[in-house]
Every structure is written in structure tokens, then in C-alpha cells.
Amino acid sequence: MLQHMEEAKTNELDEEFVEEVVNAVESIYSQLPLKYIGSSTMQGISFVKFLENVIERMNSSETLTLLSITSEYESIIQFVAQEAIKESIDRYEKSMSTLRNEEEKLQMHWKEFDKMHLKYKSEINKLFFEKIIGSPAQLSNFVKQLNGEISKSEKRFIEENSKELTTFNKKIAKKSWARHIKIKLDKNDLFRYKEESQEAWKLFESYCNELMIKSPEADEIIALFKNRYMAAVDYNKQLGKINAELTKTIQEEEDKKSQLIICMNEERLRSKIETLKKEREEYERNANNKILELQANIE
């Protein structure tokens, strides 16, 4: 049985035997001194990797020089650091992903975003320093690498949050515009008085400030709609001037038309008077002829 111990399964062994073996192994491990690479303690993953590399190098047929323990130490230091960086970035991204809402959208106040970023980064740094090994210069270099990778990952989350904030806040602004300003534009009834203009914009801003997620993106959107509002006010002023000028022109044309009608009436009146004069003259002439005829008959 002892000759084939490596093939035996634990549940096939005597329980008392297994317990004694476990106790013996734990006793041995408890008395083993810590292993170091330089001044750093070697943890399980680094120690196993170190032994694997040494054995692989010793068994390699291409090994023409003596095994360099120093170079193996260096390779383990680099291996552990890169594994720690990968694990840290993976953990950071998983943590930041939990900030998305039920619609899988990342749209939150920047203060809260920065707060959670610093929290997760602090947790990662603590675990990272527990895993990496090497000299102070090497540790500093590994931290720079980690910060560089975190910055790249953070940038992607920043871009995502900014995009979603813009989309969300723009929807609010469009709804407020339609409710308080566009409805007047559609009716050609925009701001007959200055007070109406100011009140409409106050209502627009109040609605946005109540529902928008406060952020630079929100400020930029409000500024954009403020430009539209000012353009609408200017359009309204220009339209008012045009309408006033048109009304004045129409009135002038009406006055001219009325004057023309008056002139035409006067002309017609003079013509009628002239006609009446002619009719009267004709009547008098006929009457005189009739009188002369009667006088002639009398004679």
C-alpha cells in the first residue's frame, strides 16, 4: 500500500492515519522559517513559482550555464507583480461595475463617483502591497504600473458616466423645453411681454434643476438651451418688428385706399352734379320751347 500511496484516495485511507498525517504536516509547516526574496517574505504563490522555475531550468537540455538563483528570484518578483496587477485591475473593474443601476447604466454624481473610485482603489492598493515583493525601487515601479492600468480603466468608466449623464440630463431639458417654451413657439405666441419671457425661462430652469443630476454635463446642456432660448427671444423681437412694420404698411395702404375711394366719390359726385345740371338745362330748354309753342298757338 505504501508503494502506491500517491494513487490512493483520501477516503480510502484509515481516518486515524489521515488525522496523524495532517497533524504531522501542520507541525512541520509551523516550524518552518519564512522564505525570503531579498528582504521580502515569499508567499505560497511566489514560492511555488520559484520552485517550478528552478526545476524547469535544471531539467532543461538547453541549460548550458550554472543555474542562477538571483535571476530566478528576479523572474519570480516580476511574475508575482504582474499577477497582482492583473488581479487588482480585475477586482477594481468588478467593483466599479456594481455602480451601474438596474438598467445597467452608469449615471451618478461625480462626487459619489470619485468617492467610490477612491474607496475601491484604496482596497486594491492594500491587497496589492500584501502580494508584491522586491526592493523599494521595484515596489515603486510596480505601483506606477498599477496606477497606470487603473487610470486607463478609470478613464473608461469616466467616459461611460459622462455619456450617460449627458443622455439623461438632455432628456429632462427637452421635456422642460417642450412644456414651457416650445408650446408658445408652436402657437406663435412667444413672449408678448418681457415678464412672460423671463417667467418661461425660470420655469424651464426650475424643472431642470429639480430633476437633472447636477454635473458639468447638466450645466453644459442648460447653457445650450439658454442659447436656443435667447435665439427664440431674438426671433420673437424681430418677428414683432416685422409684424409692426407690416401692420403699419397695411394701415397706410388702407388709408390710401380710403382716400382713393373718397376721391372717387367726389369725382362721381361732380359728374352727377354735372349731369343734373345738363338735365336741368335740357328741362328748362324744353320748357321754354313748350311755352313759346303755347304762346304761338294762343296768338
Automatic annotation (TrEMBL):
Highest taxon listed in the record's lineage: Eukaryota
Keyword Coiled coil (UniProt): yes
InterPro entries reported for this sequence: P-loop_NTPase
Keyword line: Coiled coil
Coiled coil: 82-109, 236-293
Protein name, per record: Guanylate-binding protein/Atlastin C-terminal domain-containing protein
Source lineage: Eukaryota, Fungi, Fungi incertae sedis, Mucoromycota, Glomeromycotina
